[in-house]
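Listing S7. Sequence submitted for prediction.
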Amino acid sequence: MLTVGLLTVNATAQDAINIGSRLEPLIDEHLIASKTGDLRLELHHPVRRNDAITLDRPWEGNNSAYSTVLKHNGQFFFYYRGTTLILDGKVRHGHHATTCVMTSRNGLTWTRPDLGFVKRSGWEHNNIILTFDPNCKIDVSAGQTLRDGRDLLSGQKAPFTGASHNFTPMIDTNPRCKTNEKFKALGGHDHRTLFAFASPDGLNWTMMQKEPVIVDGMMDSQNLAFWDPVQQKYFAYYRDFKNKKGDTRKYAKHEFYLRDRDVRVATSTDFINWTKGNWVDWRPDRITQLYTTQAQLYPGAGHLRIAFPMRYIPGRGRFSRLNQRIAKSSAYYATVYTDTGFASSRDGRTFKMWPEALVRPGPTDEQWFYGFGGTALNIFESASQLPGGDPEWSFYVQDHGAWFGDGVTYNRYTIRKDGFVSASASLSGGTFTTRPIRFRGNHLYINYSTSASGSLRVELQGTDGKPLPGYSLTQCDEIFGNSLKRAVTWKSNAQVGAIAGQPVRLRFELKDADLFSLRFGPSR
């Protein structure tokens, strides 16, 4: 819960925010000038569903992670790392890391395509697109620091290196993108470098150049990039370590686990030449270390970003029987816990970080482990669980099956569209007034929910805070119910086009209600 401070209502018309007809989720205080009563911003939690993806093939395993969901031309792609851990007094890797892909038409039911890129006994009919195997489509040893490795299956040590450790693809929405580079990716695990990859179809990949493109991070994490349509550049988010002064430094071997895990952001206009990374500015400051970021553009609102970082909390003790088993091979891993956080940003550099977890570990022992809460990059729209219900948002979360299981299981979580944060009030009521805005459209639509006894009303004001004729709070028809897109009316009049383009304020009154987002638009 976040309470918004009371601010003075003295902004001028020149200060008006031009929101046009874009979607404005209530994920932060950007639009709010003042509030009264019990009004607050509320973080909502997704619902765990039974739909699951279990990564239990011989080329996958109980250390599979770093997944990504993409949708292109009506088809979903689920990319992930396949790895297995062997805990027998030591922590060892059972085989080379693989990058695999599943496909789906609805994001719920997945199929492993038989790609035939990698030929190996016991790995027949696999869906691998990248690994150290010399028969793979990508010769990863072509990279200057992507070292080929030796296979533990042949009795030799498997290296903890290679692009398959953290290969993270994206769909390039840059209008100048080449057709044969519609899919791009970052990957590379020699700790300090990331390489650039490209593909025309998401399956057949090549390195864009032999040299690394980003070299100022600690890359044994999921590192990502995407095209920003507003700022017209690529943004990359990648993991690095820092000390209390905010500087990266070398650590002695005995200090390895004292490192502070954080995130850098860099930009590029061509995906090859990147700026030096700067630390992401978390406000308020993060209370945990961050292992991943999972930053992405907000669906339907490209001027915003949301992030689902895996929060990293070491040294908390051996909570579960699973941790006690892990402790026999690694005292450190047995006392690390992770969960899913939530953050949002308007510029890609400063993020509002919620101190509470978005997804908590569940009630079973095998959900309290180092790795729980790692979300698949990118949320997506899916059909409602209820007959006739509105579409909702889905995303996958690493849930159980790690360390000693046959394979990691990702469970699907769902939440209403725009439902991560709302302006909320109890039945005693609360109000908030926006900063001056300019809009385009004939109607005001809201995404909201109330109880059976709750309500919501809206007033349109001038910049002086006085109600506009015909749009006062008392003239607003009381709204109750639950809808993703409800047109607000004043004495049955929904038309607001006459004041479009003028600086106005919105005043919302909520009683046992949540307001998730607003948008001006044409008549439906």
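Caption to Listing S7: primary sequence and predicted structure tokens for the chain studied. The longest helix spans residues 321-327. Helices lie at 321-327.
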